[in-house]
Design goal:
There is one protein chain. By secondary structure, the chain is mainly alpha-helical. The protein has two domains: about 70 residues; about 60 residues, no CATH class. It contains eight helices and no strands. Helix 3 packs antiparallel against helix 4.
Length: about 170
């Protein structure tokens, strides 16, 4: 049986996270935090990931929480590579790692940390940890899971008719 790529990616997400992610206990500030974190992590690779995570909630039978996630507006990460450059950080192999660490700090703050808080408070700690340890060897670059990546289509070169170039005209 054939499935569409979107259906295949949805089923891969359901299988991957059906047992490894769940609603936090009721004493938590935000019971949907694990789902929101997952949404933020995968949103860069798949803008339609919110609908897939809603399906995951349905699959796990968290029907009361679905509307909360529907109403949640996806926040925009306040830091860009250009901001790091303005702080004097040269582009290199640790650039992506620094951005990922800042994103993790932002997620820990429940997406409330501002640009200034991240750059003034978190960035010096991250940079200190980079210089005092070999973080680049310990951490691996997180690649998006297969279910988050739509296949890129290759553009085919148009076929040219060699006879119509005028070289063989009589």
């Amino acid at each position: 049986m054939k499935y569409s790529n979107d259906c295949r990616r949805l089923s891969q997400l359901l299988i991957t996270y059906r047992n490894s992610i769940s609603i936090l206990d009721s004493s938590s500030i935000d019971r949907l935090k694990p789902y929101k974190d997952l949404l933020i992590d995968l949103y860069l690779f798949d803008p339609d990931i919110k609908e897939k995570i809603l399906e995951l909630l349905k699959y796990q039978y968290y029907l009361n929480e679905i509307q909360q996630l529907i109403d949640w507006i996806i926040p925009i990460f306040p830091i860009s590579g250009g901001m790091l450059a303005l702080k004097g950080i040269k582009q290199g192999p640790n650039y992506k790692l620094i951005l990922n660490e800042l994103r993790e700090e932002w997620k820990k703050s429940h997406f409330k940390a501002t640009e200034n808080q991240l750059l003034d408070e978190s960035l010096p700690i991250i940079l200190k940890n980079l210089t005092t340890s070999t973080v680049t060897q310990q951490k691996t670059v997180v690649n998006p899971p297969a279910f988050a990546l739509p296949k890129k289509r290759k553009h085919k070169e148009p076929k040219t008719d060699h006879l119509s170039t005028g070289a063989n005209t009589l």
